Amino acid sequence: MPFIASLLRRVYLSLSELAWSALFVILVIHLVASYLLFLLAGEGDLVGNPVDFLYYYMVTATTVGYGDLSPKSGPGRLIAVLFVLPGGIAIFTAVLGKLLTTIGTIWRNRMRGLGDYSERAGHIIVLGWQEGQTYQTLRLLHAERQANEPMSVLVAKDLPENPASNYADYIRTERLGDADALVRAGVAKARAIIARGANDDETLAAVLIAEDHAPNAHIVAYFADDRTAQMVKQRRPRVEAVGSLAEELLSRSARDPGSSEIAARLLSAASTDTAFSLPVPPLQTPLLYGDVFLSLKRQHNVTLVGMLSQGVTDLNCGDEAPLRGGETLYYISGMRLDPAAIAWARMGDVS
User: 89 lies in a domain?
Assistant: First the structure.
């Protein structure tokens, strides 16, 4: 008796909530009952072939009504009018309503930050929300997003809905250093992470958690205190710690007018002369920096400005500086180069 009572309760709850399992059972019962009734009515054209009957049932239930199959006898037509048609339409309407409700619920959950993007790969995660600054960051990231690159994911707290739905998906969390939120954001396969919390302590906590869960992602973090940024640079080599450049730009612009404009254009995705980076693949034959400089200028009309080699960045490399593979080149161009379009093997011949 307890088992039967429990079973009946489950059936009642499924029916009252119109669960998918309940809808499926109702559909099967109505389909089988319709088949048996037509069989008793002698409608051989409808029930002679199961495929034909299923086709007739779906066409009738969805009110399409092609008319190529229909009951011929009086009892068969009464069965269609009194049982198959109203029952089929009711079930079809319930399934359609349930489907639309499910889709709407999924969309609302995504907007409220309750989605799951743990399987996403090759995207950028932005940790923290500052009105204006973060929106601009997401807009710039979206402007440079490639055709096959997934949308960025914003992880923020205290936001009832996605504040930048045109530019990023959203994960809601109670703290930026929440491992579960990072996992839902797809941190394991992210290509890069940008962290900027409400204060440096929050940013640092988010960076430490992100490092543990994103072994291959490049991490960029903003710190208001330059001392904190320097400390992170020294102790966390994987993290690119960024401090405020306002003081440097003010003093440099005072002595070298236009310096702030140059810096802004080099960092702006909307500029026609923006700075980009280019990884150097493994090379069979070492190259000279000067040869690469001339080759890139002649073949792609870009200006090479520096190189990162063995952890050291040099923005005024000598022509004889060697490239063996694994370095990162920095260049100025109106568009990002496609690494596959660069003929590294022919760069040694620039005559």
Answer: yes
- Better-predicted residue by pLDDT, 9 or 302: 302
Contact, 220 vs 190, CB < 8 A? no
Q: Measure the CA–CA gap between 142 and 136, rounded to whole angstroms.
A: 10
pLDDT digits (tens, 9 = 90+) for 251-260: 777 778 887 7
Q: Is 111 left (phi over 0), alpha (psi -120 to 50) or beta?
A: alpha
pTM of the predicted model as reported, rounded to 2 decimal places = 0.67
Q: Do 93 and 153 fall within a single domain? A: no
Mark which of 76, 111, 146 sits at the end of a domain: 111
Q: Which residues, including other chains, have CB under 8 Å from residue 232's CB and lie 6 or more apart?
A: 204, 207, 221, 223, 239, 241
Q: Rounded mean pLDDT of 121-132?
A: 93
Segment 35-61 shows an average pLDDT of 88
State how beta strands 303-309 and 168-173 pair.
unpaired
Domain with 75 in it: 2-111
- Are 323 and 300 in the same domain? yes
- Which range (13-17, 57-61, 285-289) has the least confidence? 13-17
Tokens 């809601």, residue located: 172
Q: What CATH number should be reported for the domain holding residue 189?
A: 3.40.50.720
